[in-house]
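Lab notebook, bench 4. Still working through the backlog of constructs that have no structural model yet. Next entry is a single chain of 118 residues. Request: give me the structure tokens for it.
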Amino acid sequence: QVQLVESGGGLVRAGGSLRLSCAASGNFFSINSMGWYRQAPGKQRELVATIPSGGSTNYADSVKGRFTISRDNVKNTVYLQMNSLKPEDTAVYYCKAQIMTNWSRVYWGQGTQVTVSS
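Model written out:
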């Protein structure tokens, strides 16, 4: 059973920083792309950042220059360093990963709440 477990959310003031982590566990052969998405109340889930197993990262325009995505392939973990946080960054943040078991499929984490106060 493959699972993605997120951690690191919380309440922070505008201008502050948080670091999210998402660790994959279970039986699998490899992890391809990993990424972070977010969903604010009343809005659709949107891409924040993605990182492939090899190659360049991708960011939403709204977070470029403030957020950094990285991964540790030994620990099967993806991180999202969030700096200069704004109230509009408030959302539930979800981790997503394309994982190869007997076949390739997408897994989602349970979500972690990030709240930025003004």
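Notes after review: Residues 13 and 117 are 5 Å apart (CA to CA). The chain has a mean pLDDT of 96. Flag for follow-up if needed.
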